[in-house]
Amino acid sequence: MTAIVPIQPGTLSLAAMHLRGGGLVAMPTETVYGLACNAANPDAVVRLYEAKGRPRFNPLIAHVANMEMAEQEAVFSESAREIAAKFWPGPLTMVLPVAPTGTVSDIARAGLDTIALRMPAHPGARALIETFGKPLVAPSANRSGHVSPTTAQHVKEDLDGKVDLILDGGPCERGIESTIVSFVGERPVLLRAGALETSALEAALGQSLVAREEADGISAPGQLKSHYAPNARVRLNADAPEPGEGWLAFGKTPYPGLNLSEAGDLREAAKNLFAALRTLDTQHDRIAVARIPDESLGEAINDRLARAAHRD
Predict the structure, then answer these.
(1) What is the pLDDT of residues 90-124, one digit of tens each?
(2) What distance in Å separates the CA atoms of residue 228 and residue 277, rounded to the nearest whole number?
(3) What is the mean pLDDT of the chain?
(4) CA 144 to CA 141: how far, in whole Å?
(5) d(C-alpha 301, C-alpha 295), whole Å
(6) What count of other Cβ atoms lies within 10 Å of the Cβ of residue 239?
(7) Residue 215: what pLDDT?
(8) How many angstroms separate the CA atoms of 88 and 91, rounded?
């Protein structure tokens, strides 16, 4: 049984002790709960992949506490540095060339010459990284491909007994994963829509983001076609539930079920998405999802729903 403990100085020290020993610690972030380990320890990273059942060709995001730590791991262009200054800490992951001084293990980067970096905004996550003193890789703290966790209890349901400690920081504020942008080529490339609106990034950059091509392969997390998936089959853009289907609504609806946001608020919908999918998954073997506007955070919500609905 894995203990769930509140974040306080004593539990942060205990968590850092586990991490130094090659252990795994679940930590809250503003996006989803992450499963953290020492990014520089390949044995710990292998244990993390095994705990999640995650394919090893799928790279991990390294989480840092400050720019000094980030610049040890990656080479920042001028535009990348400006974007980091504007949006970090926050729900943005930047894919950058690996720095010669980098410490993140090859296996965590899936052998790539790039690294995915994020500076989380959640004070508990930042405190853990600062207490540990080095970058932590931290993919979502769930079984690979399953619905991402937004509470400590979600983590326990998926990974009880496979991790050393679960730090409880309450429900996640954003509820969906970070936006991922590559700053490796001539123009920034959107690798994954997420909790930071694409429009805000494009306004800061003064240019549109290049869309990722499927043929480019896996260069960052969250690019597998089937991901974030419940056991139940998911039907998208539904006008109404069919007999036997669970109903995931958005906005006003006459049908009983769960509602991402009765007010039609995309931020509220993003926060509630994964918890709602988990709840309906325990009650139904089929889930119908109402139409979500494909704008602002709706882009990221629809991305997660499309991957949840995909069956190989």
Answers:
(1) 999 999 999 999 999 999 998 899 999 999 999 99
(2) 9
(3) 92
(4) 9
(5) 10
(6) 9
(7) 42
(8) 8
Least Cα distance to 41 among 109, 137, 135, 105 occurs for 105
∠ Cα 189 56 34 (to 5°): 70
Position 217, amino acid: G
Cβ atoms of 64 and 128 within 8 Å: the answer is no
Sign of CA dihedral 312, 48, 143, 16: negative
Pairing of strands 136-137, 34-38: antiparallel
Q: What is the CATH class of 4-216? A: alpha beta
**Phi, then psi, of 26 in degrees rounded to 5:** -85, 135
Residue 277 identity: L
Question: What dihedral do alpha carbons 269, 159, 39, 57 form, nearest 10°?
Answer: -80
10-residue block means of pLDDT along the chain (312 residues)? 96 98 98 97 93 79 97 97 98 97 93 95 97 97 90 97 97 96 93 95 95 59 61 95 97 96 95 94 96 93 90 64
Distance of CA 70 to the CA centre of its chain: 18
Asked whether the beta carbons of 287 and 161 are under 8 A apart, the reply is no
Each residue's pLDDT tens digit, 205-216: 999 999 876 545
Domain with CATH 3.90.870.10 in the chain: 4-216
> Which run of H or E residues covers position 167?
strand 165-168
One DSSP character per residue, 2-60 reads: PPEEE-SHHHHHHHHHHHHTT--EEE--SSS-EEEEETT-HHHHHHHHHHHT--TTS--
